[in-house]
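G., the chain you wanted modeled:
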Amino acid sequence: MTRQRALVYIHFAAVLFGLTGVFGELIQASAAVITLGRAVFAVLALAGFARIQRRPLFKALSPAQLFVLIVAGGLLAAHWVTFFISVKTGGIAIATLGFASFPAFITLLEGLLFRERVRQAEWLLLGLVTAGLVLVTPSFDIADQGTIGLAWGILSGLSFALLALTNRRSAAGLDPMQVACWQNIVVVLAMLPFATSQLPLLPALDWLWLALLGIFCTGLSHYLFVSSLTRLNARSAGLVIALEPVYAIGFAWLLFAQQPTLRMIAGAALIVAAIVWSGLRKAQR
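Predicted structure as tokens:
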């Protein structure tokens, strides 16, 4: 793995992350069905990539580790369901920008749950993300579809922040591919009661989109991300992944004519700037 190849991998991973909302728009099914299908194909893809790298996915876990992975899998399911509801309700750009609020939630939760002091710079991060979300909000009317979609996107960001903190605190020492595989298995089990009855009605084209979403936007993107970190530091990887909202907005504009307003572009710029700045500070620390 050369540094140049690692950069190609991480950029491709960011593009695949940005395509997640596109598949959410294309698939004519409920958020529960999309989440179930994504997780099923992700498990198959991760198993294949792990076999290529000869990494054991099902080595023995302690009861504590298994409990943490179950909790994290539940949070992952909540994150995906709320994100796809946001896509269906408010559109790809609004859903992605709502989700991009997660660094602000991580900062707040670290202070509330772990008694970590929130520094002045982190309050500035919260301010930038909040200002960006205010600009992104289409209307302050709770009956507006875009506003409802943004609320679901923010909820998706909150659940992802909880997932990130769970993994950071309790999944240390585990193989990232193993963690991803087990969490996706939990997602499958959690979604089966809500989505099984809808599966026979799913069109063949939706099965294709689900396969692409699970294999490429989940399994392959995670494989590329983990592989790139063998040559890139956290700062470099974080700067590239921060481009995910930019890619998502571009895809929505190009494929679905969901043209962003100037206010949305300004809000997106603030949120992306906050994510990049947060990543740079954490890498330096």
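Residues 191 and 227 are 29 Å apart (CA to CA).

Shout if anything looks off.
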